[in-house]
Amino acid sequence: MTDQPVPDIRPDVPHGARIWNYWLGGKDNYAADREIADAVSAVFPEIVDMAFKSRQFLTRAVRFLAGEAGIRQFLDIGTGLPTMQNTHEVAQSVTPEAKIVYVDNDPLVLAHARALLVNTTPEGVTEYINADYHQPERIVEQAREILDFSQPIAVLFMGVFGYVPDYDEARSIISRVVDAVPSGSYLALWDGTSTSEAVVRGAQAQGELGSPYALRTVDEIRGWFAGTELVEPGVVPVTLWRPADVEVGQAEHIDAYCGVGRKP
Q1: This prediction's pTM
Q2: Which keywords describe this protein according to UniProt (predicted)?
Q3: Which of 15, 58, 63, 109 has the smallest number of CB atoms closer than 10 Å to its CB?
Q4: CATH code, 77
Q5: Is 73 among the domain residues?
């Protein structure tokens, strides 16, 4: 891990990474995080299932990218707290020489990253950048010190843009990173969608407690892939993106859509 100072942790201020950690059954969260998480799940119990199913999409997407797509470099922006099947673990299990750069700005994530986000293979590289995804140029600049930007890179934004109220701002962040990576790179992302009354109520409850979460339409999620060639099956619920054989026939609709696109 790159040696970086750990800012003060504010347990009284809720943070998205810790809220999702709570929904995933983790212990790296505080009362302020749990208050919001419980309020959302009270009106939208499916949020817990969404947390797990979206994580499973990350696993399948990274396995596809490291395997079939032949990607050896990953830039995972808005990493969140280490949990089940982290990006480097999946990628390096498929291709041991994979390089992974994680990006997040939560001090608790940084503290855990130093201890847990370490190589699973001697050939691999796992590094962490302490930065906000509102600073794409800074992210790219620091990532260039670790990754080879003359070779394809997979850019991951997994469930992070609900905390960006303005749709065009989120699209700008994506395009500024994707513009920096070469042809043959990939963009993989998912986010919450306003596809049921229950999920809308959940987002409203979260906003009322001071942690607004912006849901998107399916067309808006699709718009984030502008300029890329979508990999089959396109933009779909996270449960329907290349489900494993054991999942076929059991995948249900979920209020989170995803996709993987290749930069031509």
Answers
A1: 0.88
A2: Methyltransferase, Transferase
A3: 63
A4: 3.40.50.150
A5: yes
